[in-house]
Amino acid sequence: MRFATGDNLAVPVARPGEFEPLAIGSLAVDPPVVLAPMAGVTNHPFRSLCREFGAGLYVSEMITARGFLMGNRLTKLLASSMPDETPRSVQIYGSDPVDVGEMARALAAEGVDHLDMNFGCPVPKVTRAGGGSAIPLKPRLLARLVRAAVRGAGNVPVTIKVRKGVNDDLTTYLDAGRVAQEEGARAIGLHARTSAQLYAGEADWDAIGTLVERVTIPVLGNGDVWEAWDALRMMRATGCHGVIVGRGCLGRPWLFGELAAVFAGREPDPPPNFGRIAEIMVDHAERLIEFFGAEYGLRQMRKWCTWYTVGFRGSAKLRAKLVRIDSLDELRAHLAAVDSDEPFPLNALRAHRGKGGRTQRVVLPEGFLDDRDDDTPPKGPRSAEEIAAWEKALAGG
Ligand SMILES: Cc1cc2nc3c(=O)[nH]c(=O)nc-3n(C[C@H](O)[C@H](O)[C@H](O)COP(=O)(O)O)c2cc1C
């Protein structure tokens, strides 16, 4: 049986030679699948878990350049990796070319294999200061930032990730594609929603197709890959060179196994039943505890418990207990009570995890659009307190 939400969504698996490995500079990503950078999510524990199920490129969450350069303990931990992780990929968030260049240089010296730059952040605190997804509104500033990272990174390939624009009247992705290409970025990822849309509604895959036509560097399509079939559909419909998978893998790390299967021309295995998922949850919790320590690791695990159990029978009651766990034994005890044979619920395949469905009005700095050629970096946080407040806002975005 093919496991999919609808016949129209379950498309034929890849034909031999249909899709090339994704080339990011000298890096060959095969299958052409990238784990989206997600704040509070794509730390080493989750990346390593996803990698065990599949193949591809697994990007860190965004790491703020200021926090990194000032040696903030948590920022450094989030940017860090383990010797088992190759290729190692880090996403940089910064709006000052000097910081960004310095961070790229430091990470290249540490041996990272890929750097991504985040120009899609929709958080109000950030756009109000002219940062995040507001930056592509100023192509010359964007160019300075990409140039600084590319220079700092040396031989390490740099990519950028953008949204379609700030809102439907202020789209920026085509300018961003041109700039990325001119400044030596090796690929561009497009989350095909505007910042005003946040995570609501459907991503505009047509925009991905348009970008593919306009640039010569590889385009990574992003938005609404919930099932492995969506990745094939997106690549066939848009001609993009790879896909970035975000919320679809929250609580479903085996999605990367399904993706590897369909790109290799095989039908994916059915998803795990509840018993196997309980084992994966314990494994995930152990990884979080090992990396972050027991207290922070277990606190992180609580939100994962919600994502892993979406859609299972009677899971609301179970979740009420799981979001209060204080120990691994408690997690194990609660999970011991689940019906191991219960199959994965079909209605959870496209359940939106991680972000709600609200939209927003994007606020830019006063007069920001008066001079779009201005390449002055926006003022970012400088003191340790400002950086901490900034990072908290980013994590919530
Ligand atoms: C919890 C969460 C955190 C995110 N953090 C980041 C981030 O750090 N950097 C980034 O470029 N995008 C971030 N995003 C956006 C995702 O990378 C991706 O572009 C978005 O979720 C759309 O893909 P999807 O429809 O597959 O979820 C985040 C998204 C979520 C849900």
Note down, in words, how this protein is organized.
The protein has helices at residues 44-53, 65-69, 73-79, 97-110, 124-127, 139-153, 173-182, 205-214, 228-238, 255-263, 274-292, 294-309, 315-322, 328-336, 384-396; strands spanning 22-24, 27-29, 33-35, 57-64, 89-93, 114-119, 158-167, 170-171, 187-194, 219-222, 242-245. It is α/β, with parallel strands linked by helices and 397 residues long. The longest helix is centred in the last third of the chain and has 19 residues, at 274-292. 49% of the residues are buried. The structure holds flavin mononucleotide.
Based on the model shown, name its key terms.
2 domains; two-stranded antiparallel sheet; Non-ribosomal Peptide Synthetase Peptidyl Carrier Protein, Chain A; globular; TIM Barrel; 15 helices; 397 residues; alpha/beta
Record the SSE blueprint.
Elements: E1 22-24, E2 27-29, E3 33-35, H1 44-53, E4 57-64, H2 65-69, H3 73-79, E5 89-93, H4 97-110, E6 114-119, H5 124-127, H6 139-153, E7 158-167, E8 170-171, H7 173-182, E9 187-194, H8 205-214, E10 219-222, H9 228-238, E11 242-245, H10 255-263, H11 274-292, H12 294-309, H13 315-322, H14 328-336, H15 384-396
Parallel strand pairs: 3-4, 3-11, 4-5, 5-6, 6-7, 7-9, 9-10, 10-11
Antiparallel strand pairs: 1-2, 7-8
The structure holds flavin mononucleotide.
